[in-house]
Amino acid sequence: MRKLALTVLAVSLPLFADFFPPTVHTSITSVGEKSVSLSSALPVEGMSGIVIHDYGNDLQAVTGRVIQQPNGTATLTKEDVVHHDKLPTIKTAVAPDDEVIGGYLYNNVLLIAPDADTYARITSAYDKNWIHPDLFALFLSNEGDALPTKENLAKFATEYQVGLIYIVKKDKAVLLDPFSGAHVAQKPIDNLPKEAKYPFYMRLDGIDTGWFGSSDKNGNYYKAVEAL
Fold it and tell me: What residues of the chain score a pLDDT lower than 50?
């Protein structure tokens, strides 16, 4: 019995040993009007994944996106999975036996943090492809948005191939899947600054947009990210 218990623990550890949910591979078993059944559910409620159709002759394409639901099924979404102005939209319908990659690009992470020290502490703790917030700051400026929102984060993630948004809040850190809008992980975090120097940590001195509705660079960072 003890050996069995240790075996079960060892098998379970990869799912819980890391703050970041794992990327997984599964397949579609049946397709409904707006949802699909998977051969194995994605490990976290709210996790998104891409659907890959195999045409044969080593030709594959991404044909859709799914989001894991609490009832064990996954919903289909209609957004473009790969953003490219010069590529045609693939119209192949999602079908049984299509491959699903859950947590696609979860290794590409945008960190929204209150200051440089917090940013450095977190990025040095995890081996991820960190997308620097300077890019997101410029994106917001081009969009004319004053605040990070789930909507502009989803658009940014599509254009820059970002899988997760790591957000430092007042007393916890959360991982936002930008395509489902759901938190797929959270944990307590301490040693945070009371106020942020910028709306979120960035190296740029100034952005031509109305940060937090004001030209004051010492805006209320924690209040701004609370809704994310």
Answer: 1-16, 208-216
